[in-house]
Amino acid sequence: MSDGKLTPPVSDKDHAVGPDDAPITLVEYGDYECPYCGMAHPIVKSVQRALGEQLRFVFRNFPLAEAHPHARLAAQAAEAAGAQGRFWEMHDMLFENQTALEPGDIVGYAKSIGLDVTRFERDLEAGTFMKKVRDDFRNGVRSGVNGTPTFFVNGERYDGSWANEEGFIRALRLHNVDDSARVDRTSDSLTST
Amino acid sequence: MTEPDLDGRAATILPAGTPAPDFALNSAPDKTIRLSELRGHPVILVFYPADWSPVCGDQVALYNEILSEFREYGAELVGISVDSAWCHAAFAKDRNLRFPLLADFEPKGAVARLYGAYRQRDGTSERALFVLDGDGIIRWSYCSPIGVNPGADGILNALESIAGKSSSTKAESFRTDSTEVRP
Predict the structure, then answer these.
(1) Does A66 lie at the interface with B, CB-CB under 8 angstroms?
(2) What whole-number distance in Å separates Cα of residue B65 and Cα of residue B55?
(3) ipTM for the complex?
(4) Which of A90, A94, A104 is nearest to A34 (CA)?
(5) Looking at beta carbons, which residues of chain A come within 8 Å of B69?
(6) Cis before B107 (ω within 30)
(7) Which residues contact A164 (CB under 8 A, 6 or more apart)?
(8) Contact A28/A150 with Cβ under 8 angstroms?
């Protein structure tokens, strides 16, 4: 049950890679301890390489903490790294080390990507980014996220397959073509939003 | 009882405005939950086809995470499938579930049938959601395609709407009740 519309839309509060005016915006709601998200991680990387400047990729947190006891801390770690301008470095570290997400491991990753570790640890202990993680989760639920990973393409939930990277890239490219074909109907879509 | 159509889909689940039929089902081998005992709070009934199947797994995992938000509305959530209480116990333990799973096991699917949410051909319930207000009236219902996890946004919208209308809920349910008793 969902219209599958991304709420809120992508903004400067999000962690994004790629041009703001890229024709394709791919948003992932993910969990650093979720094995499927771990499988999706290298696929998303390939998609980014293949689509280049045509793609803006955004990651939002959806930690399934009851199932994945390290997921919420990992999400906060990525946000804390983000506060020091290193979100994506931590994001990659976490996905590449999904089975080692104890606090000690995470502090090790913070050191290895050159964070101010004192500040990083203080942020985690104080729960500075707890609210951000929780807000992402709530907004995800409201947008119709029903598991992890859930992708949105240009604001609409993507229910197709992502496991085959060529198929995923093809589906995303189609989205791009659809959009350009709909340019003459822009006025319609503006009134409906 | 509703005849299933060619897809094996029950044609209709009970719609909003209907008083929720009462039932008592086992939530554990030695424990029973009666729906009417939950009056006074919104209740979310989650019918799903089977323990252990991948989509249900995601769906119950999601609801398990969102439980605290449901409870902010004072709502209770119960899962219902035709699996036995022993099967539910193993599933709930494996998934660390914090809400009861009810066994619609004998007679098989009797409660799902009451709600129009039984798939005769498959011998399981539909993937159907019902949100009841504190007076036991269905305020929202939704039947999802069997392979699609319906998420939680519809449930939250329904709870929000019940919370917003709580002052008028009584009057509405009286109206519904009186319609109900008329022939």
Answers:
(1) yes
(2) 16
(3) 0.70
(4) A94
(5) 138, 141
(6) yes
(7) none
(8) yes
